[in-house]
Specification:
By secondary structure, the protein is an alpha+beta fold. The protein has five helices and 15 strands. The longest helix is centred in the C-terminal third of the chain and has 15 residues.
């Protein structure tokens, strides 16, 4: 079985006009979609389209219609990605006790040779919106793959929708390392690095990960609020008005549970000075 947990840390570094950096422990799931029937044996720790401690559901991705594989293949085909895909590996956060805020998921569409034909970075913001970056022009590097895409989606109230993303990915079956760099005018403005060691996706692996990081799955929004407060209040970095989405691939995703609605209100309430353009 290739599905696994990736247990490590997330690092962010902002470069000018106010420098700022932080790191947090983090873990994610790398799910081979072909192995979902076998992973049903992990209930009630893990569940696919069923209640469980950690839950994976198609409604939490893309437009929420169809199976996970159908959604990925539909999105890839719409952007000219060449299939067929022998394997699809989804690197993502899952619902924990029914609660989810998932900043980004990465989908690897692999050919029969194990090489990615397409990688999709599926990004969510705290304004209830979702946007896919479909990466088909993948450059081989010594550690994996590199791809670039113009920024088309508003994520942070401290950055406008300007610049270019440079994504760097480890190979799908290697220990996870995913880097994101934002360049503006040729200069690096932001870096993020998500790394993790492989832990077997078993009951024992899930228990050990929860023992090591018992609250990691529940503190994403509080961590966002803490860092936003430091930038806005302590560092006096001005807020950027949220524009109306500029790309038709951006979707409005209505919060489905009271916890998701509360999280959205907390973020927007804490950043009360921001003006919001909607779809």
């Amino acid at each position: 079985m290739t599905s696994r947990l990736c247990v490590g840390e997330l690092r962010h570094q902002r470069i000018g006009p106010v420098d700022h950096a932080f790191r947090y422990p983090s873990f994610a799931f790398a799910i081979d979609l072909e192995e979902l029937p076998a992973l049903a044996s992990l209930a009630p720790w893990f569940g696919h389209e069923r209640r469980a401690l950690f839950g994976l559901s198609a409604r939490d991705h893309f437009d929420g219609t169809g199976t996970l594989r159908e959604q990925f293949e539909r999105m890839a085909a719409a952007h000219g990605a060449q299939g067929p895909f022998a394997r699809i590996v989804l690197v993502t956060n899952l619902r924990f006790l029914g609660v989810l805020f998932n900043p980004v998921s990465f989908w690897y569409g692999l050919g029969a040779d194990g090489e990615p034909r397409c990688i999709i970075a599926e990004v969510n913001n705290t304004f209830g919106e979702r946007h896919p970056y479909v990466l088909t022009d993948l450059e081989r590097t010594p550690r994996g793959y590199r791809a670039r895409a113009p920024k088309r989606f508003f994520v942070s109230p401290f950055y406008d929708v300007q610049g270019e993303y440079e994504f760097e990915f480890s190979r799908p079956d290697d220990p996870m390392a995913i880097g994101i760099t934002v360049r503006r005018g040729g200069e690096v403005a932001f870096r993020a690095l998500w790394t993790g060691a492989d832990v077997p996706l078993t009951r024992a692996g899930l228990f050990a990960t929860l023992a090591r990081q018992p609250f990691s799955a529940l503190v994403t929004v509080p961590r966002i609020l803490v860092q936003a407060a430091r930038l806005w209040i302590q560092r006096r970095l001005p807020l950027v008005p949220k524009p109306v989405p500029i790309d038709p691939a951006t979707r409005r995703v209505a919060p489905e549970s009271w916890t998701e609605r509360l999280a959205a209100r907390l973020v927007l309430g804490a950043l009360g000075g921001i003006r919001e353009g909607r779809l």
